[in-house]
Amino acid sequence: MVTRGDARREQILYAAMVVFADHGYHRASLAGIAEHVGISQAGLLHHFPTKPRLLTAVLEARDRLDREWLAELDPDGRTGPRLLVNLLRLVDRNRRLGGLVQIYTALAGESVTDDHPARAWFTDRYGRVTASVEAGLLAGADALRPDVDCALLAREVVAVMDGLQLQWLLRPDEVDMVAAFRDYATRLIRSTALDPEPLVALLASAVPVPLPAHAG
Amino acid sequence: MVTRGDARREQILYAAMVVFADHGYHRASLAGIAEHVGISQAGLLHHFPTKPRLLTAVLEARDRLDREWLAELDPDGRTGPRLLVNLLRLVDRNRRLGGLVQIYTALAGESVTDDHPARAWFTDRYGRVTASVEAGLLAGADALRPDVDCALLAREVVAVMDGLQLQWLLRPDEVDMVAAFRDYATRLIRSTALDPEPLVALLASAVPVPLPAHAG
DNA sequence: GTCTATAGGGTGATAGAC
DNA sequence: GTCTATCACCCTATAGAC
Predict the structure, then answer these.
(1) pLDDT at A36 over 50
(2) How far is CA B13 from CA A17, B34, B137, in A?
């Protein structure tokens, strides 16, 4: 539950999300974030005492958002190859959200450096995300060919989503992540599911309007 | 050709590669790089007048290294699905190189932010890399099923390599990128090549000693 | 809860001696 | 080519008034 007194905090969190996405963590300044909110830098520090703690709060807020999206995307707890249909919808959602997704790519890349304050969080998050995808695959494993390695496959699926996102952020108008992921997921289903064609059809119609590859 | 007078420059380039990889671009300091070389910060600036120009030089040096590796990996200009065997070798090489690969992930993530000095370079590089993979696939397209979209597939392959690398950098001892990429490439060949099994066998023996997934 | 003022640290780049 | 010294800047965080 969110009390009324947290309104300013949420303003700051949102502004910090935007500024971290635009400049990364180390280049973002507290003064810049405070300016977005319309307060002074010292005023900001009243709500979040240090910069790393602001970052932590931002990442936790993103976590909550992610959980809401996943719950909304996957109300029936769909498993096995059908999971890919939900992930395709997630890719499409990320595309429409634009800059707010950038924070992951910008911070994840930055975080691989030695003692980055977000490193533990990302290490953790990848563990949870891949484990969750793996669990989804395992739960529907009876619809998959028996030689599928769900652990390796989970890492692969997450890797494809991240890698496409990086290419898309660098060239949004030339890279169609939805088309690329649909192509990937279709081939993946055909090579791992026991009864692929119904799922392939679902995938083809999962995201309402497939965009042309080079839309202006 | 490299003249003897460039020795110091190369020392600096190497040190910069290491420090950028460890800390990213913005957190790396010229003084820190200079210390690795054993000279002063002002001494460094005699060879590279500004920090962005040092970064550019580092990226260009990595480019040259990459080209040498690719030439060595692919002496016969192998194309089509066989390209994947060479890429698996590249993944293995990256694993063994450790920190020197990190510079790509660290800088690529950082570069998606608005006006990062490496952004244009990465945008360019992804264009070249995906185009080169696509060209390789197209050149061997007669060994592929006719419905394969080489452009989308090229982006996908690059995405898998990048995404796995990020996961591996965050948890080097838990993520086996070679195994994951081999698994991916095997499935990909089976679902796209007209005569997959010889290539699958090649893939299975391509990297001498497959590591156990959770080696200590 | 928000402000101004400032301490205290680090940075990229320049000037000029050797 | 390399150094020391220094400038000018930006940053996080604190102190204390309102």
Answers:
(1) yes
(2) 34, 10, 34
Cβ burial of B88 (10 Å; 0-12, 13-18, 19+) is buried
Under CATH, which architecture does the B1-61 domain have?
A: Orthogonal Bundle (1.10)
**What is the distance between the alpha carbons of residues A181 and A82, in angstroms, rounded to a whole number?**
14
CA A19, distance to chain mean position in Å, is: 17
Bridge partners, A144 (sequence order) = A193
Q: What is the mean predicted confidence (pLDDT) over A13-36?
A: 96
pLDDT tens for each residue of A42-68:
999 999 999 999 999 999 998 888 788
Phi, psi of B213 (to 5 degrees): -65, -35
Burial A9-46 (b: 16+ CB within 10 A, else e): eeebbbbbbbbbbbbbbbbbebebbbeebebeeeebee
What CATH superfamily classification does A1-58 receive?
Answer: Homeodomain-like (1.10.10.60)
Distance from CA of B26 to the nearest CA of A (A): 7
A159: nearest CB among B21, B160, B190: B160
B77 min Cα distance to partner chain A (Å): 26
**C15 C1' to A100 CA distance, Å:** 45
Hey, where are the domains in chain B? 1-61, 74-216
